[in-house]
Design brief:
InterPro entries: Acyl_CoA_acyltransferase, Bact_Acetyltransf, GNAT_dom. GO terms for molecular function: acyltransferase activity, transferring groups other than amino-acyl groups. By secondary structure, the protein is α+β, with helices and mostly antiparallel strands. It has a single domain, classed as 3-Layer(aba) Sandwich (Aminopeptidase). The chain has five helices and seven strands. Strands 1-2-3-4-5-7-6 form a seven-stranded mixed beta sheet, sandwiched between helices. The longest helix is centred in the first third of the chain and has 20 residues.
Length: about 160
């Protein structure tokens, strides 16, 4: 099965919602519980929220498409006034498609999309050892940690990679 990476569009929103719901439950249920994950995904990945991401200036929303369904997605946006720092907000691959290089394809395309930027930054849940290992193999270095409060109180690790 071949997978290609393309820019997401408005017509992809229902498939993106399904992909994000499945990947979030697979990734975060054990940490926060299925009810919390369901509540967060219904808000953070609503049709309106995803449409706003697609329309945001200086951003890129990519999907990995196998011709039948979306099997991965990545979303990043330039942050700050000068756009030199890009923040990766999403990188998710369906559990059955993980380990096939799809995450690496999406990440590489995101890195190349922001050719005027100097740095890509991201946060990873401290307990998400699989994602931490993935980003390290992709050349990202841990530069710190932050504690977030709220419904999903958690500690996140901050990773960065130079794009120049």
């Amino acid at each position: 099965m071949s997978v290609y990476v393309r820019t997401a569009g408005v017509r992809d929103i229902p498939a993106l919602q399904a992909l994000l719901l499945e990947t979030w439950h697979a990734t975060y249920d054990a940490l926060y519980g299925a009810d919390v994950v369901a509540a967060l995904t219904s808000r953070w990945h609503s049709e309106a929220a995803l449409a706003a991401m697609l329309e945001r200036e200086r951003s890129d929303y990519l999907v990995a498409d196998d011709g039948v369904r979306l099997c991965g997605c990545a979303y990043a946006a330039a942050t700050g006034e000068d756009g030199r720092v890009v923040t990766l907000f999403q990188l998710y691959v369906l559990p059955l498609h993980q380990g096939r290089g799809i995450g690496g394809m999406l990440l590489e395309e995101i890195e190349q999309s922001f050719f005027e930027s100097e740095l890509l930054r991201l946060e990873v849940e401290e307990q998400n050892s699989r994602a931490i290992a993935f980003y390290r193999t992709q050349g990202y270095a841990e530069i710190g940690r932050e504690v977030h409060a709220g419904e999903m109180a958690r500690t996140v690790l901050i990773f960065e990679k130079s794009l120049v």
